Amino acid sequence: MRTSRASSSVTEKWLLFTQLCLLKDLVIRCVRQFIRRAKSMLLSQNVVVEPTAEINVKSSSSSQQDLNNSFQIAQVRINDSVCIEIPVPEDTPLLRSVKKTCSVAAATTVEETVTTEFVPKISSGSYADKGESREYMEDEHICIDDLSSHLGSSFFRFPVPVAFYGVFDGHGGSQASRYIKENATRLFFEEDAVFRESHSTVNAFLLREVERSHRRAYRLADLAMEDESVVSGSCGTTALTALVIGRHLMVANAGDCRAVLCRRGRAVDLSFDHKSTLDAERRRVEELGGYFEGEYIYGELAVTRALGDWSVKRLSSSLSPLISDPEIKQMVLTEEDEFLIMGCDGVWDVMTSQYAVTFARQGLRRHGDPRRCAMELGREAFRLDTSDNVTVVVICFTSSPPASQRRRIQFCVSDEARAKLQTMLQG
Ligand SMILES: *[C@@H]1O[C@H](CO)[C@@H](O)[C@H](O)[C@H]1NC(C)=O
Ligand SMILES: *[C@@H]1O[C@H](CO)[C@@H](O)[C@H](O)[C@H]1NC(C)=O
Ligand SMILES: CC(=O)N[C@H]1CO[C@H](CO)[C@@H](O)[C@@H]1O
């Protein structure tokens, strides 16, 4: 008797419990659906600029000049068919006669991006670990927060602060990655006239020259490695570099390291992994007569761009499909751009760009220390069981920790949207 009553009360409790669980699920689902609907409604009230949108700033055309001498036109291109033109005051620095490309965050007003006077305050940290099971470290990296004091201000005379970072993931030994790390300042800065001359402003011409000089540095490093006495033919390295000139960021990449920008919490890839899985690279290789065995070019290498690896480059009698030319991306940093993560493939094998950005942002909000942040990211990669060596560089562009993300949505609500929301809540 007692037992049966006890068991029936247990059954009742169990039933009640499951009902409560179902109810909870239902409530959660309703709330989620509401949030989704509210979000899509709010977004439809605003111009949403795709992450790939470009801002082109052109000098005033003649008809505009007639209208008003002191205006030029900024053009926001979303894609071929959608294009908005807005006048920008002429005294906006850096925009004159420059064609600049930068990404715009979703739901950002255009003015905010165009007229900003943001100058980043740079700090950085790095972490490198070969992992437990591996014997040698083949990655190398370089972090120079202030190039002028590093190279000597009498030599290096840029009108704005310049910082330089690199991640070099070696394979077939560490000779190639060591070569480029040890010789980086010579290759990238000391030998090219553009960095020795004094400049009064950072303009489009100078930025183009810097880009040219970077391409040259990649080529020179690659050619130097052709000499077997410097770097063995079976050895090579990928190279990812980032140069911050005032508020200009230039990322160059050859290989499968990756640079990811955190824009108010959103991950923006600034480089592409040059591997067989990247359609454009696969096509490029095959057009030059190269082939893949599985994921490996000529069955030898997992990357389609690298410095060194001359034993592979010599396999083709004409132009080698394995190249050292970097892909280069230039942009203007704004207040929205919080930090940059540069990592070797050991990181990206086990986490997505967005995962890394969200993870790093949480850490930076807690302690604001890029060194600690890089270490935490590296350890997270090992926790997620990466089987490769891990190198992470974190570069912060502001001295204050990232702000809360919630503000974004509130920021976007137009009066109309608010009214709609209210009706929806009441009805
Ligand atoms: C460009 O974007 C608009 C709005 O997002 C879209 O309606 C249009 O189809 C797009 N056009 C192309 C060519 O992608
Ligand atoms: C740096 O470059 C010089 C000249 O090419 C070379 O002799 C030297 O070995 C390089 N350093 C390293 C660490 O490879
Ligand atoms: C010690 C170590 O982990 N070395 C590895 C680093 O990564 C390269 C490229 O994947 C491997 O070949 C090394 O064995």
From TrEMBL:
Cite the SMART domains for this sequence. PP2Cc (SM00332)
One GO cellular component this record assigns the protein to is:
nucleus
Q: Which InterPro entries match?
A: PP2C, PP2C_BS, PPM-type-like_dom_sf, PPM-type_phosphatase-like_dom
Q: Which reaction does it catalyse?
A: O-phospho-L-threonyl-[protein] + H2O = L-threonyl-[protein] + phosphate; O-phospho-L-seryl-[protein] + H2O = L-seryl-[protein] + phosphate
Cofactor names from the entry are:
Mn(2+); Mg(2+)
Assigned EC number: 3.1.3.16
Could you tell me the keywords of this UniProt record? Answer: Hydrolase, Magnesium, Manganese, Metal-binding, Protein phosphatase
Q: Spell out the molecular function terms from Gene Ontology.
A: metal ion binding; protein serine/threonine phosphatase activity
Describe the location of the PPM-type phosphatase domain by residue ranges.
123-397
Which Gene3D superfamilies does the record match to this protein?
Answer: PPM-type phosphatase domain
Similarity remark: Belongs to the PP2C family.
The record's section on PANTHER family has:
PROTEIN PHOSPHATASE 2C (PTHR13832), PROTEIN PHOSPHATASE 2C 13-RELATED (PTHR13832:SF620)
Q: What is this protein called?
A: protein-serine/threonine phosphatase
Source organism = Raphanus sativus (Radish)
Q: Which gene encodes it?
A: LOC108857468
